[in-house]
Design goal:
Oligomer: single chain
Distance between the termini: 33 Å
Pfam family, one: Transposase_21
Helix content: 25-40%
Strand order of the largest sheet: 1-2-3
Structural class: alpha+beta
Order of helices and strands: EEHEHEEEHHHHEH
Strand content: 5-15%
Radius of gyration: 19 Å
Largest sheet: 3 strands, antiparallel
Number of helices: 7
Number of strands: 7
Shape: globular
């Protein structure tokens, strides 16, 4: 999932934002995998403004429902490129690749600048932990606890209860939790352009060198 300005960033004062939910078929060879004609466009989120978390999840939910069914029980096809007879095809989401704000919004996690849950992989908390490079103190988030908190948020009776759960656990409901195999600590990936080129390299060149 990503958002962009359809009128280009050159339009002064123009802040329109349109979102795209897309997927690549990893069964294709790498030369063809990311060609425009090979990409699956799951949905387009209209502007003019970027929607909040709950609005985004309404666009995401029907797509995830389809992937839940393709995983179990799967899809029975009369034939495929490799078989002339009936075959059961199973499909799954392997990775979710986004920039950091979109990743947190898609997964229903607190933002990286929230002040408490700064990471979706480890359980380091608070902005003071950002510079902690002693990885021996890092421990992975408990995915089952995250899932339990997400379902608790979903079934909460009041907005106050939902707010409390989100503040305490850093997790709220996302349709991604409909997938029995969903693990944000291993499957939620920040794309290389934002992470490396516009993140690590940018910081290193401007502040370290």
């Amino acid at each position: 999932m990503d958002f962009f300005n359809p009128n280009s960033i050159r339009a002064r004062g123009n802040h329109h934002s349109v979102g795209v939910i897309s997927a690549a078929n990893l069964a294709l060879i790498t030369d063809n995998r990311y060609l425009p004609e090979s990409m699956f466009i799951g949905g387009i989120i209209p502007g003019p403004k970027e929607p909040d978390f709950e609005q985004c999840d309404h666009f995401l939910c029907p797509i995830i429902e389809q992937f839940r069914r393709t995983w179990s029980p799967g899809v029975q096809l009369s034939r495929t490129a490799d078989s002339d007879s009936n075959v059961l095809v199973e499909a799954a989401i392997i990775l979710s690749v986004n920039d950091l704000p979109a990743a947190r919004k898609l997964a229903g996690l607190q933002g990286h600048s929230s002040g408490l849950y700064i990471c979706s992989v480890c359980d380091l908390q608070g902005k003071n932990s950002i510079m902690d490079t002693n990885h021996s103190r890092w421990s992975c988030c408990n995915v089952q606890r995250m899932r339990d908190a997400a379902y608790a948020w979903r079934t909460a009776d009041t907005l106050a209860q939902r707010k409390k759960i989100f503040e305490e656990h850093g997790v709220r409901w996302s349709s991604m939790w409909l997938l029995p195999y969903w693990d944000p600590t291993r499957m939620l990936v920040v794309d290389s352009m934002h992470c490396i080129l516009e993140g690590i390299v940018h910081y290193h060149c401007r502040h370290v060198l």
